[in-house]
Amino acid sequence: MSEPTEEEINAAANAKRRKHKEAKDRILATKTLEGGLICVHTGKGKGKTTAAMGLVLRFLGHGKRVGIVQFVKGKWETGERTVLEKFGDQVTITAMGEGFTWETQDRARDISAANAAWGRAKEMMADPSLDLVVLDEINIVLRNDYIEIADVVATLRAKRPALHVMCTGRNAKMELIEIADLVTEMTEVKHHFRAGYKAQVGVEF
């Protein structure tokens, strides 16, 4: 039996792709819902905030308005904050945190900062002009019980139907995962930190 010709291989591959597209089109036709999503980026892998900022850029590209609250990285001069401040007509960014808990070593101050940030987040979620609100590293303060998970869940459940909310940080609480529409877990396969690299401009901040 002779080997198939290149033309026959292409024809078979094209037929397979046509069937694949037909199946995909049938699935897509059943997807009719629209509205604001509750999204969570969690896990031990790097890239949770980075991915959230990519989402922010996508919203900006569509002319939409975004609010960002940074619960932990307040004292860091981050590249994303410097860039996004240039989009002042579209982005409201508030850096409320004072660093990671091992840096402040002051639980009472951390709790105060976390609650102030959560108050600002509530204000943003109530602002009808915002299409997306990013709660950066909220999972860290929730994990440490600096703000009430019940309050966060209730607020997210009661948000405006069209508002999208993105929550980032390791160790997302199950209560948050359960009400979320989209949950992505970043899995660490390899990290340069373990090889002795320090946090670097443009990569970490």
Helix content: 40-55%
State the end-to-end CA separation: 61 Å
Residue windows where pLDDT falls under 50 for at least 5 positions: none
How many domain units? 2
Number of helices: 8
Instruction: Report strand %.
Output: 5-15%
- Largest sheet, described in full? 6 strands, parallel
Q: Just give the CATH class of the largest domain.
A: Alpha Beta
- Overall 3D form: globular
User: Could you say which structural class the secondary elements and strand pairing correspond to?
Assistant: alpha/beta
Order of helices and strands: HEHEHEHHEHHEHE
CATH fold field value of the largest domain: Rossmann fold
- Strand order, biggest sheet? 3-2-4-5-1-6
What's the β-strand tally?
A: 6
The CATH architecture of the largest domain would be 3-Layer(aba) Sandwich
C-alpha-based Rg, rounded:
21 Å
Could you name the CATH homologous superfamily of the largest domain? P-loop containing nucleotide triphosphate hydrolases
> Mean of residue pLDDT?
90
Describe the structure.
Helices cover about 40% and strands about 15% of the residues. By secondary structure, the protein is α/β, with parallel strands linked by helices. It has two domains: about 1-30; about 35-190, P-loop containing nucleotide triphosphate hydrolases (Rossmann fold, 3-Layer(aba) Sandwich). Strands 3-2-4-5-1-6 form a six-stranded parallel β-sheet, with helices on both faces. The longest helix is centred in the N-terminal third of the chain and has 23 residues, at about 5-30. The radius of gyration is 21 Å and the shape is globular. The chain starts with 5 loop residues before the first helix and ends in a 20-residue tail after the last strand.
